[in-house]
What does this fold into?
Amino acid sequence: MTQFFQVHPDNPQPRLLKQAAALLAKGGVAAVPTDSSYALVCHLDDKAAADALRRIRGVDDKHHLTLLCRDLSELSAYARVDNRQFRLLKAATPGPFTFILEASKEVPRRLSHPSRKTIGLRVPAHKTLQALLGLHGAPLLATTLIPRDAAEPLNDANDIRDAMAHELAAIVDAGACHLAPTTVIDLTAMASGGEAVIIRQGRGDAALLGL
It folds into this structure.
């Protein structure tokens, strides 16, 4: 049975988020709000949970998943970041950006892109998600919450409950999210003197980063 946690969008109740974090620690998959759209998340180091997340989302192991991190120090533990990359990351986080970086050894091999050894990472600004990440104490593996055979993400927690009630351990309802996706920026070329490349223009304004 899915547990439904309705929290205040600006002051989410720690008591409720602790319960959601406990379900994630036990290997559950949860629906959570972000600063782009709702996402499906699970524990990073739990292969069974990652497999369940992919099954619920309807994608295979080639689908690129993202790590949600609390801050830059946590992000840099899971990616190789040089000084140029760090300056750009500092200017863009927290916010609605996803960055493609070379994965560090801390990232399980099964989660990095198989041919390029890269990983997508983001530091969200959403207050509820930041609080949940803090209580969980580690990054969360994530993918946009788009139901199987659908083209658009769900944006209402009650709709998510109706569609996925028997598949999720928890739904964290903090109200509607923006439906625009994150801006995706590939920073891997910067490590060898190249430039950042915008892969997808979304909510994040790349012009603010000089791109």
